[in-house]
User: Which sequence fits this backbone?
């Protein structure tokens, strides 16, 4: 019974996508509702699965796809995967509602020369493509076979290309192609590492990767996969794609692109750190050093931006590195805190980037030099932007604060000079996040309102369909900030037990 939930959770978005595609002419601007209903249903299933994991532990599903080579459609729901899947699905649900008005507005701008029927076809197209994001995220979260994991990672890359090419901003096709190239780069390295693991243990099952422990080839498999996942995470020097891609996609999927990049941290933990901990030890120090460099560089790059959409895009470079800093510490608390911060970051980035999108949606201005004083006309938007910045900066009562406390406890727990130095620099880097969060809030929303905007009759808070989903994400972040044990009690049995049994 419970194992069938895993299949339903993954394939419900696919089924909803098929319904929208088949009935696209009849649905028109109602195409978003099957997506919303499907994601609400799968969120309910995830809550049922979460309760089952709390009560009885892991839930699995297994189906033999090929015997030679041994490829199985194996899914695993444990405390780690179900928590990540649930937050990802909640964000997909929130952004599907947010998109109802946003994507209609975006299509009117891009395809103004088309007739009403053609514009409606693009509206349906957005939603039946959009639903492959939650399907891909659920697949990556629950995959217990390396080939299945690779497949779902590629689903995410392909759907991102089409959504950017059809609905993005400046030079959207060129930037979509750039994203696809970097996605393929990441996938090639990941697949090469997977094949190297298979050549040594004869199976693609993630639960069997531990057989490679101590094998000289483990070092190279880890190194190759880390290059691929480092590119997806935009770790310096593999970060060059992020400001372009993250700034020019449709804002209504911004939070999902943050998940697309940051879910690589989960893949690293699941496929490398937990099964090959001793072999991974060599990589801990360089990961920590690169992470703290990326944190500082990303924050300084963010402070230098004047483009409304590039601010959160560059911020993602910095914030992604926090998770890797915790994982690189290779302590149970560091890894748990790093993954907890990943969840906090994707919630924060959903709110922060979506609010930037609201400003662009309302004012049609991206250059912050021509903005200011918006709080007088858009008070709710200003509050949402401030909350997003506070979520990024780790200010209570949001979940990023306990995530940082757990993560830095794990870093200092190392007890060596590297942990001390990198930990102190990492804590100082947080001040850069606080700086840009409040600087941009003051710059955009306070001070005098430019004369051009003061004369506008359209300057007001957006429809409630764009506000309420972000409020919902903020409330989830507050809940996890006040009750972080909800996440930690899920993570700890999986991560601590794996490290204890190494």
Assistant:
């Amino acid at each position: 019974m419970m194992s069938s939930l895993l299949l339903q959770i993954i394939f419900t978005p696919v089924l909803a996508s098929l319904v929208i595609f088949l009935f696209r002419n009849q649905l028109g601007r109602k195409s978003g509702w099957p997506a919303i209903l499907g994601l609400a249903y799968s969120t309910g299933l995830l809550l049922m699965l979460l309760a089952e994991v709390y009560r009885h532990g892991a839930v699995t599903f297994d189906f033999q796809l090929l015997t030679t080579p041994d490829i199985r459609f194996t899914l695993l729901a444990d405390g780690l995967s179900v928590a990540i899947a649930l937050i990802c699905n909640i964000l997909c649900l929130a952004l599907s509602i947010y998109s109802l008005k946003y994507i209609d507005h975006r299509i009117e701008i891009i395809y103004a020369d088309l007739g009403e029927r053609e514009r409606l076809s693009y509206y349906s197209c957005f939603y039946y493509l959009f639903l492959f994001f939650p399907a891909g995220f659920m697949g990556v979260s629950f995959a217990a076979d390396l080939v299945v994991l690779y497949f779902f990672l590629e689903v995410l890359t392909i759907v991102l290309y089409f959504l950017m090419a059809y609905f993005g901003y400046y030079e959207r096709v060129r930037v979509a192609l750039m994203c696809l190239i970097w996605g393929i780069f990441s996938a090639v390295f990941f697949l090469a590492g997977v094949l190297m693991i298979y050549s040594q243990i004869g199976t693609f099952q993630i639960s069997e990767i531990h057989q490679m422990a101590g094998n000289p080839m483990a070092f190279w498999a880890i190194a190759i996969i880390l290059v691929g996942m480092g590119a997806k995470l935009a770790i310096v020097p593999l970060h060059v794609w992020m400001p372009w891609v993250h700034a020019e996609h449709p804002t209504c999927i911004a939070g999902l692109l943050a998940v697309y990049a940051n879910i690589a941290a989960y893949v690293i933990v699941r496929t490398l750190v937990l099964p090959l901990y001793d072999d991974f030890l060599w990589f801990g120090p360089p990961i920590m050093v690169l992470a703290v460099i990326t944190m500082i560089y990303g924050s300084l790059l963010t402070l230098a931006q004047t483009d409304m959409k590039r601010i959160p895009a560059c911020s993602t470079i910095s914030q992604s590195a926090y998770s890797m800093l915790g994982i690189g510490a290779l302590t149970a608390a560091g890894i748990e805190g790093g993954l907890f911060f990943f969840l906090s970051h994707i919630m924060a980035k959903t709110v922060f980037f979506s609010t930037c999108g609201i400003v662009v949606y309302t004012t049609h201005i991206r250059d912050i030099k021509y903005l200011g004083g918006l709080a007088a006309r858009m008070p709710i938007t200003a509050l949402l932007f401030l909350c997003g910045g506070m979520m990024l900066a780790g200010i209570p009562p949001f979940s990023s604060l306990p995530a940082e406390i757990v993560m830095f406890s794990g870093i200092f727990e190392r007890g060596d000079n590297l942990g001390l130095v990198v930990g102190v620099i990492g804590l100082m880097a947080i001040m850069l996040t606080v700086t840009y969060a409040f600087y941009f809030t003051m710059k955009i929303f306070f001070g005098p309102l430019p004369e051009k905007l003061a004369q506008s009759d359209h300057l007001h808070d957006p429809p409630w369909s764009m506000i309420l989903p972000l409020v919902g994400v903020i409330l989830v972040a507050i809940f996890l900030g006040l009750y972080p044990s909800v996440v930690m009690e899920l993570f700890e049995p999986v991560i601590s037990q794996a490290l204890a049994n190494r």
In short: The mean pLDDT is 91. The two ends are 32 Å apart (CA to CA).
